[in-house]
Amino acid sequence: MTLLAFIIGVVFLAAAVFFVVGLHLMRTPRTARRGNLISAGGMITAVGATLVYAITLSHSHSLGWIALTSGVIVGGTFGVVRSRSVKMTDIPQLVSLFNAVGGGAAAAIAFADFLGRDVSAGLTPSTSVPVVLDVIIGSVSLSGSLIAAGKLQGVIPGQPIQFPGARVVNVVVVLVALGAGGAMIAQPTSWPMLLVVLVASLLFGVLMVLPIGGADAPVVVSLLNAFTGLAVAMAGFVIDNQSMIIAGALVGAAGTILTLQMAKAMNRSVLTIMLGGFGTGDSGSVALGATVTANVREVTADDVGLQLAYARHVIIVPGFGLAASQAQHEVAGLAKLLTDHGIDVKYAIHPVAGRMPGHMNVLLAEANVPYSQMLQLEEANPAFDTCDVALVVGANDVTNPAARRPGNAVSGMPILDVDHATSVVVVKRSMSPGYAGIPNELFSAPQTGMLFDDAKKALGDITLAVKQYVTT
């Protein structure tokens, strides 16, 4: 081993340490930003070391390293620009696209490495097995993540897309991929068999995600994130890069744990989610106040302002509607106004509120909401028993009392016990159902008042009303 190779190896291990520390800090909202920066520093270190190593081993005028540095510049510029301009509601789509890029890159590494080898004498299983697994997992992540991003963006319908015999086709495609992969491992002497693995895996990724409804799309994004991590780890074995192995294993493990936690929060198994057919997607085109039933009580912003001004304990329940209207600063301003006048204000955050885990935490942190005011499900539910006013902003399925009864789409799902509060106010554009596709029984509860309006405008009006009452 040359001195340069030893130094590069040490740098890769340092990058892996950054990844581990960064992931550890991402466990809580309070340290998540620092963890993200440390992880990004690890990635910059790894990419920089790779560039130095590649350039040192090649001639300065070679097209190879020019293409390499150009790729870093183009990819880095796109990542920075897109990440800074993306709306909070589109973060899950961006994450899904990153999954696709990661999985595709990992599969490309394995395929390119195989094409560059002399396979006339065959390959050992320690090489051929990671190559096949990398192509399979990376390709599924690539095509599946693109379909998931399309569903979340609305380019592809959020409803489950199924056709007769779909599961039989899935089984056939999987058998083809595994059969071709097995043949590749047994006799790794030509690339056409690996191409069959690639095509079959890409097709399976599409067929796997199409039948999954909008309600489960965030869970699938998390699962595909785990796939991407495994693909990167396999690519690390293929090219003998310890940094990729460690980073991929961390992402795979974190994505798997997150997927299981999300499935648990929805009271569904991962297998049930993968079988598809749940949820209808987001129905955001319904007019304000549409489909109002006779037993629903409407309130005005002035009514809500009066309740909040004379409350002692207020819990705000944010949901996707808050993110969709970019009303995080308005809700933070309302909460600060109440807090400044001696009213206890907390936020109750469900694990699957919004479009992905942590979505609401990040949204509120962007508006400088103190972390001490954010309560997770287990902390929030006991607090509703002594809550004077629960203000629900855009949340739907995660507050539906129907989850406590069997026989419906959300049965058994852990929910926020909003209906235990003395008074409930729901800010929503309409009575349309959430992703689960069933009506929310909370909306017609006797203690619930419905304020039909855009979240940003409604919160602004409520804030003005509260100011009138607290200053008189």
From TrEMBL:
Q: What EC number(s) does the entry state?
A: 7.1.1.1
The places in or outside the cell where this protein is found are: Cell inner membrane
Against Gene3D superfamilies, the record matches this protein to: TPP-binding domain (3.40.50.1220)
Alphabetical GO CC annotations of the entry are:
plasma membrane
Q: Please write the reaction equations for the catalytic activity of this protein.
A: NAD(+) + NADPH + H(+)(in) = NADH + NADP(+) + H(+)(out)
At the top of the EC hierarchy, this enzyme's class is: translocase
GO molecular function annotations of the record: NADP binding; proton-translocating NAD(P)+ transhydrogenase activity
Which UniProt keyword terms apply here? Cell inner membrane, Cell membrane, Membrane, NAD, NADP, Translocase, Transmembrane, Transmembrane helix
Q: Which residues form the NADP transhydrogenase beta-like domain?
A: 10-463
**Where do transmembrane segments lie in this chain?**
6-25, 37-56, 62-82, 94-115, 135-156, 168-185, 191-212, 219-239, 245-263
Q: Keyword check for Hydrolase, yes or no.
A: no
Cross-referenced InterPro entries: DHS-like_NAD/FAD-binding_dom, NADH_DH_b, PNTB-like
Q: How does it sit in the membrane?
A: Multi-pass membrane protein
Query: Which family is it part of?
Result: Belongs to the PNT beta subunit family.
Purpose of the protein: The transhydrogenation between NADH and NADP is coupled to respiration and ATP hydrolysis and functions as a proton pump across the membrane.
- Which PANTHER family does this entry report, sorted A to Z? NAD(P) TRANSHYDROGENASE SUBUNIT BETA
Its name, as the record gives it, is NAD(P) transhydrogenase subunit beta
Annotated organism of origin = Subtercola vilae
